[in-house]
Amino acid sequence: MATKNKQTIGAFLIILAGCFWGSMGIFVRRLGTYGFDSIQIVSIRVTIAALIFAVILLFKDRSGFKISLRDIPLYLGLGFGSILFFTVCYFTAITMMSLSTAAILLYTSPIWIMLMSVLFFREKLTKKKLIALLLAFGGCVLVSGISGDGISPLGLLVGLGSGIGYGLYSILGTVALRKYSPFTVTSYTFMFAAIGSWVICRPVDMLSKFSDASDLGFLIFFCGLTALITAVIPFLAYTLGLKYVEASKAGIIATIEPMVATLVGIIVFSEPLTLLSGLGIILILAAVIILNINRSPVNT
After folding, report:
1. pLDDT tens digit string along 221-273?
2. Is-contact 145 275, C-beta < 8 A?
3. For the residues 121-126, what does the mean pLDDT come to?
4. Domain ranges for the chain
5. Measured over all CA atoms, what is the biggest interatomic distance in the chain, rounded to whole angstroms?
6. How far is the C-alpha of 153 from the C-alpha of 272, rounded, in Å?
7. What's the sign of the alpha-carbon dihedral 227, 231, 234, 236?
8. Which of these, 176, 184, 173, 169, lies nearest to 56 by C-alpha position?
């Protein structure tokens, strides 16, 4: 019973993370009105998130700042190889193909997570997981939209790279959680991601846009809110959820994000809800439900 309760809590935390990630469009579109490009928005987001995570860790457990030198490559993988890599790949893919196609390639991540989990963690590839995976991916395709645009080989590689990088967080995060608290994992992950982002974000140009803003106070507040809502809360919730939920299951449950993003578009930006999008939402919800009902030690 205790194990099932922990799994339920873990699933709830991952669903919560997906909901917060799904609201990202609101913040990205607003920051875009100040002239920031996608990479600069990423840098703002991960830098402020790194500061917030560091402050949380400072007050919660200062000893959490101590990590072994041999684990630095692990955090480099989390910060550079996952957070920064998948974001850069995703936004690059957006410039090379339609938004819907880029989103579909990003949400191949549960497939990569499941394959890596079987390979590295010896997780069982159950029938229930495979059915949920197919439902979730099919739902993401329908929610994102089916594009008829051709994709170049380079575009395909970049798009798949975003999915692999996105999925890598679940794998490396699971490894890091065996030794460190979720607060340490998220703090160092975003510290490394922030450092890497400043190399590619054209910082002089980015800072000039802050100085040119007529409402600098609001802009700074909004940047902080962006980091809190789209990075700090969801990544902390997801990382905590990984303590109780298998990486492969977590990846599938997190596909609730495009469903939430679609609902945000409908409610906030008055975007139409198509029949295919509605069917996609149902498929994603079905995948999440399948993974979280009638669980038993044998099947999980």
Report:
1. 999 999 999 999 999 999 999 988 888 888 888 888 777 877 877 788 787 77
2. no
3. 82
4. 2-291
5. 60
6. 32
7. negative
8. 184
The pTM of this model reads 0.81
Distances (CA, A) of 152 to 86, 103, 119: 19, 16, 30
- In angstroms, the CA 170 to CA 179 distance is 15
Rounded CA gap, 190 and 187, in Å? Answer: 6
Q: Among 81, 52, 51, 78, which residue's Cα sits nearest to residue 67?
A: 78
* Phi, psi dihedral angles at 96 (to 5 degrees): -105, -15
Alpha carbon 133 to chain centroid distance?
A: 17
Which distant-in-sequence residues (6+ apart) come within 8 Å of 5 by Cβ? none
pLDDT at 39 over 50: yes
Q: Whole-angstrom Cα distance, residue 169 to residue 16?
A: 17
Q: Put residue 68 in one of left, alpha, beta given phi > 0 → left and psi -120 to 50 → alpha.
A: beta
Q: For residue 45, give both structure tokens.
A: 């987001």
Tell me which of 263 and 76 has the higher pLDDT: 76
Q: Phi and psi dihedrals of 149, rounded to 5?
A: -70, 145
